[in-house]
């Protein structure tokens, strides 16, 4: 994947494994991406074809807006941005200073379970890289 | 109340966020995040969604000011932000390697909007980088059959940014 945030092969492999774990931990999840905070795709695991470069830029804008809105409204830290659509969910959350996690799930997914799976993955990655 | 909306665009680092924060009446909305690509050599942070500020004119009319992300991968945000806009400020950084080419890129990116609404070009960092000069900008615009004002500005000077808006109001449909 095209990106310039330098991550080692080892780190990329670790991230891929984490995304695989996430996808297998929850039946509803069909794709997961790690994206640099300024919108470049870094690692992708997906059962379907997805256009990662466009999605990466869009999800980084969305998270930045979510974080601005959280501050503006006095609700402090944005934990997730959730896009709830007729055919599924997208969840966007921060992973440390320089990355974010985007997860795509089918509509029959339990949202609470989905969010908790996303959060666990993000925390595992943060701990591994001491982000 | 009529609704005035102007959009600022240009390469990352040219001064969109600075320009809007110089004239906005409140702390602008910013969506800057850390840069992780080659841009990080020049700039620690970059706008990924939008800047937003507001200024009130003498006759109590409000102008909403939006700044776009500079990079092409955020083109979808440009399309969202220009919706309903009355004019475009194109900021060009004269210290870059080919400012006239930058100008062409933004004129092309926003071609339909410039045609329908109106635009003004603000050239920054001319004090340290006088070349190309304003005549060359006008020659380039003439070659493209475009009649837009070009101003030498410093985005850190409030008066310069106001001057840009005045020029834009003169050319856009607003009267
Ligand atoms: N030295 C110098 N700095 C400038 C000049 N114009 C803008 N800047 C600086 O360049 C930076 C522009 O950053 P920013 O407004 O975030 O640019 P954006 O990416 O277009 O939003 C700011 O730190 C400005 O103070 C200039 O003429 N001279």
Descriptors:
heterodimer; A: alpha+beta; Beta-Lactamase; 5-stranded antiparallel sheet; B: 175 residues; Rossmann fold; 6 helices; binds guanosine-5'-diphosphate
Descriptive report:
- Chain A contains three helices and five strands.
- Chain A has a five-stranded antiparallel β-sheet with strand order 2-1-5-4-3, with helices on both faces.
- In chain A, helix 1 runs antiparallel to helix 3.
- Chain A is 44% helix and 26% strand.
- By secondary structure, chain A is α+β, with helices and mostly antiparallel strands.
- The radius of gyration of chain A is 14 Å and the shape is globular.
- Chain A has a single domain, classed as Dynein light chain 2a, cytoplasmic (Beta-Lactamase), CATH 3.30.450.30.
- Chain B has a single domain, classed as P-loop containing nucleotide triphosphate hydrolases (Rossmann fold), CATH 3.40.50.300.
- A six-stranded mixed β-sheet of chain B has the order 4-5-1-6-7-8, with helices on both faces.
- The longest helix of chain B has 14 residues.
- Guanosine-5'-diphosphate binds next to helix 1 of chain B.
Distance between the termini of chain A: 22 Å
Low-pLDDT parts of chain B are none
How many structurally independent domains of chain A?
1
H/E element sequence of chain B: EHEEEEHEHHEHEH
Largest sheet of chain A: 5 strands, antiparallel
Low-confidence stretches of chain A: none
Secondary-structure element pattern of chain A, one letter each:
HEEHEEEH
Unique bound compounds: guanosine-5'-diphosphate
